[in-house]
TrEMBL record:
GO terms for molecular function: pyrophosphatase activity. It holds the Pfam family Ppx-GppA. It comes from Cryptosporangium arvum DSM 44712. PANTHER family: EXOPOLYPHOSPHATASE, EXOPOLYPHOSPHATASE 2. Gene3D superfamilies: 3.30.420.40, Exopolyphosphatase. Domain 2. This is Exopolyphosphatase. CDD domains: ASKHA_NBD_MtPPX2-like (cd24119). InterPro entries: ATPase_NBD, GppA/Ppx_hydrolase, Ppx_GppA_N. Residues 17-296 form the Ppx/GppA phosphatase N-terminal domain.
Amino acid sequence: MRVAAIDCGTNSIRLLVADLSDDTLVDVVREMTIVRLGQGVDETGRLAPEAIERTRVALAGYASQIRELGAERVRMVATSASRDASNADDFRAMVLSTLGRAPEVITGDEEARLSFDGAVRGLRSGEPPYLVVDIGGGSTEFVLGTDGVDAARSVDIGCVRLTERHLRSDPPTAAEITATERDVVAAVDLAREVVPVEKARTLVGLAGSVTTVTALALGLTGYDPAAIHHARISRDQVTEVTDRLLTQTREQRAAYPVMHPGRVDVIGAGALVLRVIMDQVGADSVVASEHDILDGIAWSLS
């Protein structure tokens, strides 16, 4: 069966069209567009009209591909930014008119479960229980489990949210970095109230911040999903990359061949979230996964 999954987050909107059988998911199309839907939401509580329009343009292209490729089932999930916004109805109406169906604005717990399912199916690196950490633009999900989810919590830290809140200088100041670290530590403490992170044997990191840090740690000369998927990098490598990014200007970060243009201004915050989480949970390494909530959405259509 051919299915189409759309994940609309705070920073990006992504499409996966795949052929799904009982135990395999074969990509037909996998795309990402940086739309920054969550622009200013942390400060204003509202989705900016220009952000909704950027998302509409990207979604219109995805809808056309879904029709052309003949997907039998379609599911669009919207996460942190559209959960937080007071004008989420404007976003919902736009999606309904563009895609022909309404988005599902899911809870943080459902987001966490979909992320875990997408990441752990097919994982051959590391030992369970797994602690899956999905670092998004507006939120981060902590999920502990082996074959299924044992505990999950979503907390309101992400690369876009923390950049807008604290990391406003180029490069960030020491005070801005300290304030960001403080927020991440507090968020990990919140997650720990529900998720017994100390039980984890393997930390699995998801989403663009993690995969970009991994690409930098590996010294790749171009973004290579096959090289990144299930690669393991150490806490020392994460610390080195994070420290480097936080001392560089936007221009210097943009010069990396693995850096997506839409991630240049928020990668420092994303790397810092990963580094602080590793410190707080005592993880010596992290396994990066290119499969995440998008794959979980596709599996949910079986």
